[in-house]
Amino acid sequence: MNNLRAFKKITPTIADNAYIDPSCVLIGDIVIDQDSSIWPLVAARGDVNYITIGKRSNIQDGSILHVTRSSSANSKGYPLIIGDDVTVGHKAMLHGCYIGSRVLIGMGAIVLDGAIIEDDVMLAAGSLVAPNKKLESGYLYKGSPAVQARKLTEAEIQFLKQSAINYVELKDEYL
Which spans of this chain does the record mark as coiled coil (predicted)? Predict the structure, then answer.
């Protein structure tokens, strides 16, 4: 089975130095930028809206990426936009939300429609970001629903970029 599939004649667009694991499934209107990586068993459907993944971002094993269709209540629906240098932990679910740059989404976290996660944020494992919630830059958020826990340290902010670099190095080894 082909893991890159068209939907309504739109096929995912993958940068030449991105890593796409053969076991993941990417469908439809998806753009993956330079040095990014999609790991085993990720399912991403850009069928009723679009998905963009920035530079040096990594989507780890078993994560689910989806979007929301336009409707009379929401004329544009909700695409899924992921910035640069983002680490999405194992089994995370991102649905029709905006993820800024230098963000860590913890394992098993869920981010729902219309949510906005600004740059330089850590979201703890297992957290739930409610629809239309905004997570402010520079903080750790945790819980279900996610709440601001504390300001990030300088070392944690530096780690956000380092985590992305670590995955660029790993994807190069796979390539």
Answer: none
